[in-house]
Input
Amino acid sequence: MLIRKHPSAMVFLALLAIFTIAVTLMSEAYGSGLVPTSTVKTLGKTLCLALAAVAMDLVWGYAGILSLGHMAFFALGGYMIGMWLMYARTGEIVAATLANAPIPPTPDELRQGITGQIFGVVGSADLPLTWSFAGSLPAQLVLVLAVPGLLAFLFGWLAFRSRVNGVYLSILTQAMTLALSLWLFQNDNGFRGNNGLSGLQNIPGLTDVPQSVISIWFLWASALLLAGGYLLATWLTAGKFGSVIRAIRDDETRVRFLGYPVEGYKLTVFTISAMICAAAGALYYPQAGIINPAELAPIASVYLAVWVAIGGRGRLYGAVIGAVVVSLLSSWFTGGRAPDLDLGFYRVAWVNWWQVLLGLGFVAVTLFAPRGLSSLVDALAGLRPPRRMGTDLGPDVGALREKEAEA
Amino acid sequence: MTALLEVSGVTKSFDGFRAINNLSFSIGAAELRAVIGPNGAGKTTFMDIVTGKTRPDRGQVLWGERSQSLLKMSEAQIARAGIGRKFQRPTVFEDQSVADNLTMALKAPRGPFAVLRWKPSGASAARVAALAGEVGLADRLTRKAGELSHGQKQWLEIGMLLAQEPRLLLVDEPAAGMTLAEREQTTTLLRRLAETRAVVVVEHDMDFVRRLDCKVTVLHQGAVLAEGSLDHVSANPEVIDVYLGR
Output
């Protein structure tokens, strides 16, 4: 039903399936080996970033809330799953070492060993309270959604209730992610300070499975999660709920006079979106292998907004296109594989100049193609912007601009 | 007859300027009322106070049979209690179709989770089609509201107000920018609506008010200057003074 009404979702899912199967058939583990394991990991991570962009589009493109702190939720999801990965994996190693001892270790000794291994680096001998559930996968999986969800709920409740809007809200979200990042940097807060959590690519219980196979499993999981998240977002933005949040984006005062509790809607969308982001992060960091507080730097969230803007906000496929194209280009340019450009008098090294190129691209998109890369898709589908003599579609700052809309 | 809305002793100042000064006003459950007054008389502030957009410094605003105070309620709660407002400029959701605009306005639970569970039914589609027919937009249901002409947007907004099924309708300068034929249509509609609910029309245009043929409240400097039939108030020397200048 949902798919029949939204053919673009069907096309997207089909493309995603084709992509996943193609990568699998070219992987080292299950196919010809054309695609190296490191590339499989990059692609899997890219799918997670695409899902984060979909979540961002939900709050910004549909509800008009320009959150510049969404990567905090993404990273928190990563931290929550990372705690289990690190604890359980260290547990295996400690158990193996202690197995040679004449007397079998007690659970207490085991825990002491794990704590020493994980927290020795920050000079602590006690397991922090926040790690109480780290030994249990189901508990940490619940926390993956619960912790970022609760943070988003509290933050949103405070901000939306006071009717903080526009630039002020964006600044507040930046402050949130910065504060959280600084807090995590502290060694004695129980998240290993700037060491972060590492070795996350080693999945407990799967020590004998080579990374080439695990990377494909994670690619599948990321594709499935992206498909699920995309369908959830399609369902949310279709129908009356979608109508109401788009109306809030364009003219929230009017929505109030229709009797809708605007703050409740913003809070709902913000929290759901944070949880989608967190789920994406929980799959991203095991593929990245390491997470540290720098992942919560304000710039990361700004990038997320840039991806959505370059892809074209207010359309879910736009967010995915933006995230995939820009993050893959970014890793190509910064990976040193892009050939330098020799201008005779100056050598343009892309590792340094990529950010400038991205910045120029962002400005160009904002000025000349507000629909971003998805205008290519829209041109194929025959969608045109309306003719409105340059007026936006509503009085609010987040309202769609003429060129972003569809006639 | 008990009053549906009762405003008593309301005062509101902006930076020392008294926009509303000890204003009292009441309207019955099925009544048409015109509120007139020169610029700056406090007409818009009055509507802002009733709809919860502005909080008064002093006074009471009581609503309905249970004399509920509106002062502690949010805009959305007041709208759900049954007060609809038509703005001077048409405000519809331009990026969405006429049908979506009307569907959003249909009387139904407004909470986020109730709306997530809401599904269009035969009855809701029929209601939307009927409303569109009533405001002359039956053939535009699938078109985006942004494509409509100024007059059509006005009508769409009226359709949305009807969909809300308010018990009190506040209408701000409905005649502004309307042709003579449209004005006649509007007068007929407002009078018909007032048979089953309370309608307050804020208007500048004396000619339009005469057509409405209803009780008139004259506001001046944030307070009621005179109240009664149009002939009665226009015979009042103070009203003549205010309108013709001293």
